């Protein structure tokens, strides 16, 4: 938070309050905490003192005008504050002031010096830096003279300032003013208003800083919780559109789905997954988280419909084992009914868990369940704040939304479509007496995403996406697609057989040709052989004849020239 | 004080003050006058200056100064202010505006 060089602050140690006030309460000045009965004034004052003593080493004095110290100690023990121990360690002084009107008679002038002296004694006894006065207005019911009281209170607050202690004064809320006795007139440095409202049977605690002189502060109403660790203020407001973005892609756990989105989700983006009942929204959400846990990244699953064990059991049926991630404390479940709290409280709870666990992924399943806790406008304003917070902290979040069916599928009920980055839509395709699921990307900012409707299958091994069959009659899914595929397969088989047959025919022809060629060749060879043989015989007889003639000529002594034809 | 210190008195009164302020002084003189008038010889006044003994303020739940505490007779009653209104002091001390002698055994009947 911005440094305030002019106004030193005193950290309260109350979660969230220091953020809103920019560092704490004004140091050395009184702060007024006002609100109706039962809204946590005493507790806030007490926590301020106790945190000061335990965390900031600043001893404190708690001056109580209503509850006895032992009652107080008992009340705050459930929050882990051990007052007796702090008193023993001289870090805390409890001071109980009881003014009983019935036993007091007033005559003439008086002042509250006795109170001053007691407070002073208590402050000095522990060297207190912090003082709480709860509820000083009780004096007005105990003592009759308002004029004196007002003058004395003014003096008291001045005196506290000169004493240099940071004081917290509680005051009951009045009809037309912040406090019944108008204490805000005297304590003008910082006024915190607490409120506890119930709307439609759901209550929400809120805190607002009405004024903080000399300092900037959050001006909104902030919800706060009182739980086993004390007060928890949740600084949730719209953070605006200034968050940094990442271009890193993260897988949704289903490779096909990542393909459809052009490679996965951007880290820190928000996904809305909407569909009618029973379309597998929870399964997608669980797959998404399971993938995150396998990468070793933390996630929180906020469920508004199913309990943790039910979700784990159901996911097991599609081959998704979430229990190991839960055991390894990578995955946390938070199951609550939407009607359990008001919207603000839900938001506060979500914030607190997210802040404490620091997850990378968050699922709200289904976000439309929150509609029962508020009207559309409230839900969407809550979601804006939630989304802004998630984006501001770089958390990738997935919301599922239950569509009521009908034709308005593309109109998300809570009107958050413009806020989210990626919108996956699950669509029922009813055809041929079947109901099948088609999934498509309605929008995805900044990605080259698929425009296809794919068939969404839940198998024993998880989610599978199949390209839907695009036939003449449009998209075919389910058994119609299977039938068409079978027909295709049969036709293909026939074609393959025909090709094989033709090939065999060709082969046969070839063989026939080869055989004929071989026969011709051998016939030819035989003929050649025969002719040559005849020729040889003829030549043989020819040469035999010549020899005979030569022999005869030799025997007759015929002149060479007279010899018959030479060869 | 006119009576010896050790004798137990019917009226044990304690006046808390913070220093010698105008109001304190006035309260003490008013008280003394009142006691002399209505409870002669029956009272004992103890003045406690909280500036000197601040730790004594808790015991009697002192808020306002000056405060007169009636320790005896019981129950404890307190009167704050400078005790300038005698009638209110009588109501505060639960004294009936009758002869002082009759007060003895009717202290808490009202």
The CATH H-level superfamily of the largest domain in chain A is: P-loop containing nucleotide triphosphate hydrolases
Radius of gyration of chain A: 47 Å
Q: Give the mean pLDDT of chain B.
A: 76
**Spatial sequence of strands, sheet with the most strands of chain B:** 2-1-3-4
Distance between the termini of chain A: 133 Å
CATH homologous superfamily classification of chain B:
Glutaredoxin
Query: How many separate helices of chain A?
Result: 14
- Can you identify the CATH class of chain B? Alpha Beta
Strand content of chain B: 15-25%
Which key phrases capture this entry?
heterodimer, A: 567 residues, alpha/beta, Rossmann fold, 2 domains, nine-stranded mixed beta sheet, rod-shaped, B: 110 residues, alpha+beta, Glutaredoxin, four-stranded mixed beta sheet, disordered C terminus
Topology diagram in text:
The complex is a heterodimer of chains A (567) and B (110).
Chain A: E1 9-10, H1 17-20, E2 25-26, E3 30-35, H2 41-55, E4 60-64, H3 69-77, H4 83-88, E5 92-96, E6 104-106, H5 113-126, E7 130-134, H6 138-142, H7 146-163, E8 166-172, E9 190-199, E10 202-212, E11 221-227, E12 230-233, E13 249-250, H8 255-260, E14 265-266, E15 270-275, H9 281-294, E16 299-303, H10 308-316, H11 323-327, E17 331-335, H12 343-357, E18 361-365, H13 376-392, E19 396-402, E20 422-431, E21 434-444, E22 454-459, E23 462-467, E24 469-471, E25 474-476, H14 478-556
Parallel strand pairs in A: 3-8, 3-9, 4-5, 4-7, 7-8, 15-19, 15-20, 16-17, 16-18, 18-19
Antiparallel strand pairs in A: 1-2, 9-10, 10-11, 11-12, 13-14, 20-21, 21-22, 22-23, 24-25
Helix pairs in contact in A: 12-13
Chain B: E1 11-17, H1 22-38, E2 43-49, E3 67-72, E4 77-80, H2 86-92
Parallel strand pairs in B: 1-2
Antiparallel strand pairs in B: 1-3, 3-4
């Amino acid at each position: 938070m911005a440094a305030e060089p002019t106004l030193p602050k005193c950290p309260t140690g109350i979660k969230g309050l220091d953020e809103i006030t920019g560092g704490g309460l004004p140091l050395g000045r009184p702060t007024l905490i006002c609100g109706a009965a039962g809204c946590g004034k005493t507790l806030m004052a007490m926590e301020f003192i106790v945190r000061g003593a335990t965390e900031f080493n600043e001893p404190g004095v708690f001056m109580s005008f209503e509850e006895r110290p032992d009652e107080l100690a008992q009340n705050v023990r459930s929050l882990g504050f051990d007052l007796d121990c702090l008193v023993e360690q001289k870090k805390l002084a409890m001071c109980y002031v009881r003014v009983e009107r019935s036993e007091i008679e007033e005559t003439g002038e008086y002042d509250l010096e006795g109170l001053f002296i007691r407070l002073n004694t208590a402050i000095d006894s522990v060297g207190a830096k912090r003082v709480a006065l709860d509820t000083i207005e009780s004096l007005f019911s105990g003592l009759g003279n308002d004029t004196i009281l007002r003058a004395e209170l003014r003096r008291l607050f001045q005196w506290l300032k000169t004493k240099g202690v940071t004081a917290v004064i509680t005051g009951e809320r009045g009809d037309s003013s912040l406090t019944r006795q108008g204490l805000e007139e005297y304590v003008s440095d910082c006024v915190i208003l607490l409120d506890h409202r119930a709307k439609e049977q759901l209550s929400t605690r809120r805190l607002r800083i009405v004024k903080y002189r000399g300092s900037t502060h959050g001006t909104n109403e902030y919800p706060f919780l009182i739980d086993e660790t004390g007060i928890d203020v949740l600084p949730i407001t719209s953070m605006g559109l200034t968050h940094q973005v990442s271009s890193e892609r993260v897988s949704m756990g289903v490779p096909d789905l990542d393909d459809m989105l052009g490679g996965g989700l951007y880290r820190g983006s928000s996904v809305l997954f909407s569909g009618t009942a029973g379309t597998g929204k929870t399964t997608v959400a669980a797959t998404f988280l399971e993938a995150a846990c396998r990468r070793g990244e933390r996630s929180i699953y906020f469920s508004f419909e199913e309990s943790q064990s039910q979700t784990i059991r159901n996911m097991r049926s599609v081959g998704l084992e979430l229990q190991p991630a839960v055991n390894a404390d990578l995955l946390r479940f938070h199951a609550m009914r939407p009607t359990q709290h008001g919207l603000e409280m839900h938001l506060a709870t979500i914030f607190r868990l997210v802040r404490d666990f620091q997850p990378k992924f968050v699922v709200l399943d289904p976000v439309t369940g929150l509609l029962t806790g508020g009207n559309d406008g409230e839900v969407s304003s809550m979601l804006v704040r939630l989304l802004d917070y998630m984006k501001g902290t770089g958390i990738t979040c997935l919301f599922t939304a239950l569509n009521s069916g009908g034709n308005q599928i593309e109109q998300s009920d809570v009107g958050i479509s413009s806020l989210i980055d990626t919108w996956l839509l699950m669509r029922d395709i009813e055809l041929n007496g079947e109901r099948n699921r088609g999934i498509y990307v309605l929008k995805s900012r900044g990605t080259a995403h698929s425009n296809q409707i794919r068939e969404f299958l839940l198998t024993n091994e998880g989610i599978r996406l199949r390209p839907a069959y695009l036939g003449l009659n449009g998209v075919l899914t389910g058994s119609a697609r299977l039938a068409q595929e079978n027909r295709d397969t049969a036709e293909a088989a026939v074609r393959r057989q025909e090709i094989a047959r033709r090939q065999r025919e060709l082969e046969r022809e070839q063989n026939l040709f080869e055989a004929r060629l071989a026969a011709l060749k051998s016939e030819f060879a035989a003929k050649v052989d025969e002719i040559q043989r005849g020729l040889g015989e003829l030549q043989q007889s020819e040469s035999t004849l010549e020899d005979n003639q030569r022999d005869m000529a030799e025997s007759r002594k015929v002149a060479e020239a007279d010899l018959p034809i030479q060869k | 004080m006119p009576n010896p210190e050790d004798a137990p008195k019917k009226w044990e009164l304690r006046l808390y003050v913070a220093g010698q302020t105008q109001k304190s002084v006035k309260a003490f003189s008013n008280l003394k006058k009142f006691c002399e008038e209505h409870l002669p010889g029956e009272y004992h006044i103890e003045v406690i200056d909280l500036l000197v003994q601040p730790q004594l303020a808790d015991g009697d739940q002192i808020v306002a100064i000056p405060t007169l505490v009636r320790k005896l007779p019981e129950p404890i009653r307190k009167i704050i202010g400078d005790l300038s209104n005698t009638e209110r002091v009588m109501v505060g001390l639960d004294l009936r505006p009758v002869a002082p002698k009759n007060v003895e055994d009717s202290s808490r009947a009202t």
